[in-house]
Amino acid sequence: MREQHTTHLLDTQSVGRAFLRYLIPSMLGMLLVAVNIVVDGVMVGNKLGSTALAGLGIASPVYTIFVAMSLWIGIGSATLYSQAMGAKEHHKAQTIFSYSVTIITVATLVIGITAFMFRDPLIYALGANAETYPYASAYMNVMLLFGFVFTIENAVSIFVRNDGNPNLSMMAQITFALSNIVINYFVLYVFELGVASVAMGTIIAAFLGLMVLFTHFLRKTNHLKLRRFKWDKALLITVIIVGFPSFLAEVGISVFTISHNVSLEKYAGTDGVAAFSIMSYIHSIILLTFLGMGSAIQPLISYYHGARQDERKRQTIRIAVRTALGAGAVLLLIVQLATLPIVGIFGHFSSQVTAHAVHGLRIFVIAYLFMGINFVMMTYYQSIGSMRMAIWITAAREMILMLAFITVLPRFMGITGIWMAVPLSECIVLITIVIYYRRQGSLGKHSLRKAGI
């Protein structure tokens, strides 16, 4: 039963303007977060060397898992929240918000403490060796104990964006990124501390971002109100199902990192792992750029779906696919033309590390032609509740196909086969999306052609 009708800005604003209103802050916020990650890498690489950089790269899946938990519950809940708001069911939307914040706080605390108890075998399982273990261990210990701060900050940011305040969500990301850069500069270059202090600086920065987000609750336009709720198994299952593709996407990043670290350790040793650490920092910028596009359309598609505004959904996805394709082409061109200078930003490494990084990056960036569109389409299907396709897109591109390629190709092509795994998996997934669209017609008969794919 619908509650009393209230007009929402998305009911009246043009699709193009609404897309830009969410896209610009989402992209800027994500880019600043990416810059922050890269600056961390530059600082560690220049100050502590390539082995420390490799250690951080090995430990990074722990950070990714915490982000994955926040996206699993956060995106799943926020999608249902926006659908309820589109249907004018405000009480239901607030119950979803209250329920999800409670669940994510408890879940990530339990996971962090449990993983901390088994941290040493976990570090070696992620690809550490005698050289990289001390750095990976120092970073991971802090993240396991305090990483829950990320999950709360990230989840609240998602809800604030879905509550019609993408600019404040961006400001929180800016606060996190800039404060982390400043803190880690002092940690490394003024106080000359190690990677454990770098990790703690990142935790503090996330807490400052959370403080910015809390100002949303003081606004008159805020709909994010905590309500008492009863245990609702059906709601939890729905949140888990809807948010699962986002969780899978983040877990896929960990699978991507671990599989490349293990394979490169086997075929190229520590030099190969260090080269991949450089490439993964660069990749994080592009990855977060595409994630920003997904973050921009998720509130729109979810709201339009709840409000049964199908034409607005179709217009949104056409604009988003064109944007993703254009951005992928531009990013590919930039990286191809400036590969060596980009690698050189991270420090003066041995000629072998630099050669591996340059060679790998030039092959790997081909994936960007397909990756952005795959991100957009996964978000679209997730936002309308078509979970099978959303899960297929995520699992195929980041796990099933990638792991198959990274297992088989190096046996015939050596290290080149490792770098080719992601571009091939992204391309094949896009082909399956096109085939599915043409058969299902779920976006309209001519939407893909109009979108340029």
Automatic annotation (TrEMBL):
Q: Where in the cell is it found?
A: Cell membrane
Pfam families tied to this protein: MatE (PF01554)
Q: Which residues cross the membrane?
A: 20-39, 51-75, 96-118, 138-156, 168-187, 193-214, 235-258, 278-304, 325-349, 361-381, 390-412, 418-437
- Keyword set includes Glycoprotein: no
Keyword Kinase appears in the UniProt entry: no
- Domain of life, per the record? Bacteria
Q: How does it sit in the membrane?
A: Multi-pass membrane protein
Q: Which InterPro entries match?
A: MATE_fam, MATE_MepA-like, MATE_MepA_subfamily, MdtK-like
Q: Which UniProt keywords apply?
A: Antibiotic resistance, Cell membrane, Membrane, Transmembrane, Transmembrane helix, Transport
Xref: PANTHER family: SPORULATION PROTEIN YKVU (PTHR43823)
UniProt record similarity statement: Belongs to the multi antimicrobial extrusion (MATE) (TC 2.A.66.1) family. MepA subfamily.
* Protein's UniProt name: Multidrug export protein MepA
